[in-house]
Backbone:
């Protein structure tokens, strides 16, 4: 997805509060299960539950917040390492991304392909928007190459105020 830099134009869905709502949790679940099968990985019921919670939530969630909801939903105790292992698996399968500055997690908007993400995080409501921009990826690759640096992971987070919160501030 373009973010408006380097002459690219933002897509219409970029300003939606949660672009993942265009599909049901069941549809996303089938996509995730299909991707895991194709990658030789197993999407267990707990992993699927964690992913579903992230899909239906409208903001990034922390591991302990996920833990609380899972325990209420399943009427049983779940240990924190179990949730962290599920999150690590989902990240390794490119189904979930971590918002490092907030120590929270969001579903990946494009789990079918590897890509670097830009996260725009609203300081008012906590919502995050995922964006892709090949120009920024290329720029970072060029800079790293010029430094003789091998990049193993990129985390780009931009904090500000989303259009929804800006609109409510003006109202």
Residues:
């Amino acid at each position: 997805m373009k973010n408006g830099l380097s002459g690219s134009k933002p897509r219409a869905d970029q300003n939606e509060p949660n672009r993942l709502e265009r599909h049901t949790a069941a549809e996303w679940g089938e996509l995730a299960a299909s991707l895991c099968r194709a990658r030789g990985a197993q999407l267990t019921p707990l992993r699927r539950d964690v992913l579903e919670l992230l899909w239906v939530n409208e903001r990034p969630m922390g591991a302990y917040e996920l833990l609380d909801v899972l325990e209420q939903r399943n009427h049983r105790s779940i240990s924190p390492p179990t949730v962290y292992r599920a999150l690590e698996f989902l990240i390794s399968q490119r189904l979930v991304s971590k918002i490092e500055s907030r120590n929270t997690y969001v579903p990946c908007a494009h789990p079918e392909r590897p890509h670097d993400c830009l996260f725009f995080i609203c300081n008012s409501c906590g919502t995050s928007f995922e964006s892709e921009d090949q120009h920024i990826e290329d720029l970072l690759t060029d800079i790293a190459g010029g430094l003789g640096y091998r990049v193993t992971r990129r985390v780009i987070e931009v904090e500000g105020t989303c259009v929804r919160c800006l609109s409510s501030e003006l109202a």
